[in-house]
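Q: What structure does this chain adopt?
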Amino acid sequence: MIEDRIRALGSAVVAFSGGVDSSVVAALAHRALGDRALAVTAVSPAVATGELDGARRVAAHIGIAHEIVRTDELARPGYRANGPDRCYFCKSELYDVLAQLAHDRGYNALLSGANQDDQGDWRPGLKAAAEHGVVHPLQHTSKAEVRALARAFELPSAEKPASPCLASRIPYGTAVDPETLRLIDRAERNVKALGFPVLRVRHHGIMGRLEVAQDDLQEALARAAEVTAAIKAAGYRHAVIDPEPFRSGRLNAALVRPAASP
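A:
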């Protein structure tokens, strides 16, 4: 039982974004540890508007103690450089902050929402987690099973689409800076306000390229003038709608993964 393994830790801090994976871990930790479980949400310029409010709602639904911390991944040159290992520097910053909090408060472990499906993608953040001794309670649980647990717990995030940091919209090799992150966030909020909930605005300098979910693609194309105007209103000079639907992890598809260690 996952709960039993968490209970054996004695106490834990949950890296809690409010997404479905970390929400399930927070719910399990609260069930297993009660007031010895703490959900912590990190905020920074790379977090999309609305994500913190969503995390607060989920934490309140679960009943778990919840705190907010600030992280400064932009202070790390490796993050700003935006190479394929960008997430390593982001997660290193996150786990440095959470590890210090756990040490100061006397919590025994750090928990993440990484699940079985994450093992098959390019996830340099898992290296940072390993370096900090982070425990992944869902590492043998598929994404479909995670969502089933979320529904069973009646979590508000059960159907929430993935929402990685805004830097994931910037092609590798293009530097990350606060203004670019704000630009992407404004553009995505503008398009969401038109009724497209699952999307990414990919940053290409003066152009924003919109990807929307398969179910919404034809409507977006039919409303192209309105949709591209919303992206331009955020500050992009040019805007286009990708004729291919949004697919999570597309940026990583071109990467050559390093060979696995023996």
